[in-house]
Structure to design on (345 residues):
């Protein structure tokens, strides 16, 4: 049998192949440049994302008000902001002095608690771990100064995020249309649907985290008060706030309480550790499934590795925003990649 040679591609096909290759190359270079630009501007990107979270919270509160009382969205949004400010101001006026006092006592007591823990474990082992964990030439005092600097930067960033969130919440449709207008016409519809789904997922996730934070605060306050651990209110606030960080936050929130309980004796320490273990079991097996029923469900391993990546790339702020960043990335990838591939298959 005689082999028939393949016919050469027509010139028009070759030109189309070259054009497609050139287009893919340009897109790849553009995506690489965009990734590099986002890396250089990651502080601003995280600040914008934090402002979006503030806007989502304001809209969720406004939607709740509209379900109770029929009001225009703009009025409900202003009322939601005033209610949030009033609650924060009222809580500060009622409990601010007590909270400040207990936080001060907690700060004074933790060094002694750490010393007691080091003696119990073995000072040589603790020093070895600390020398391994600390960078060369750093001391505990320098790490505390760095932590204070990060806290000060976080406070200023939080203020900017709140202001930005207010502006975004005031007229979100304009910003959404502006974002979509920068995309090709064919991509506007799927990206718009994905952004709407991401906003809903973030709203549900934030509401779920707020429920978990409130439940943890209440349970820790009652539990530590019954055990007799000092500064129970301050420890409950710390545990409730750290609950915002998925998976890692509950463990970090238990450390100060366990250290402080150790100063009272081994029995109090054991009761405190047992309380946090039991509460985490209750929260993980009873509360979390109920909360996640209305929020986006992400595998724990994905969340944990995402927190590690966010912390490695962006530091403390990345860990704090790692949860909502994971939710946003998960929903966007699902809508723009997974569902699209399924539909085209």
């Amino acid at each position: 049998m005689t082999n028939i040679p393949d016919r050469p591609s027509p010139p028009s096909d070759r030109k189309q192949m070259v054009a497609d290759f050139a287009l893919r190359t340009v897109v790849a270079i553009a995506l690489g440049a965009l990734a590099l630009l986002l890396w250089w501007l990651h502080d601003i990107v995280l600040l914008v994302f934090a402002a979006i979270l503030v806007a989502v919270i304001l809209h969720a509160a406004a939607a709740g008000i509209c379900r109770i009382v029929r009001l225009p969205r703009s009025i409900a949004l202003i009322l939601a902001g005033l209610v949030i400010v009033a609650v924060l101001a009222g809580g500060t006026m009622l409990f601010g002095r007590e909270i400040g006092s207990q936080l001060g006592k907690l700060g004074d007591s933790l060094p002694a608690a750490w010393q007691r823990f080091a003696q119990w474990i073995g000072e040589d082992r603790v020093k070895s771990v600390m020398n391994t964990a600390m960078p060369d030439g750093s001391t505990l005092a320098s790490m505390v100064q760095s932590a204070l600097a990060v806290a000060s930067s976080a406070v200023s960033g939080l203020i900017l995020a709140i202001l930005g969130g207010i502006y975004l919440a005031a007229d979100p449709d304009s910003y959404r249309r502006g974002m979509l207008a920068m995309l090709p016409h064919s991509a506007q519809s799927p990206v718009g649907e994905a952004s709407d789904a991401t906003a809903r997922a973030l709203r549900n996730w934030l509401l779920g985290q707020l429920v978990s934070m409130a439940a943890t605060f209440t349970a820790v306050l009652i539990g530590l008060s019954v055990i007799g651990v000092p500064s129970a209110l301050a420890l409950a606030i710390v545990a409730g706030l750290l609950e915002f960080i998925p998976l890692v936050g509950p463990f970090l929130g238990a450390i100060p309480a366990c250290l402080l309980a150790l100063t009272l004796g081994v029995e109090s320490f054991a009761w405190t550790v047992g309380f946090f273990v039991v509460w985490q079991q209750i929260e993980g097996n009873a509360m979390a499934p109920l909360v996640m029923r209305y929020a986006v469900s992400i595998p724990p391993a994905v969340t944990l590795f995402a927190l590690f990546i966010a912390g490695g790339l962006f530091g403390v702020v990345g860990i704090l925003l790692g949860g909502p960043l994971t939710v946003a990335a998960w929903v966007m990838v699902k809508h723009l990649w997974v569902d699209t591939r399924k539909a085209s298959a």
Remarks:
- The first helix runs from residue 11 to 40.
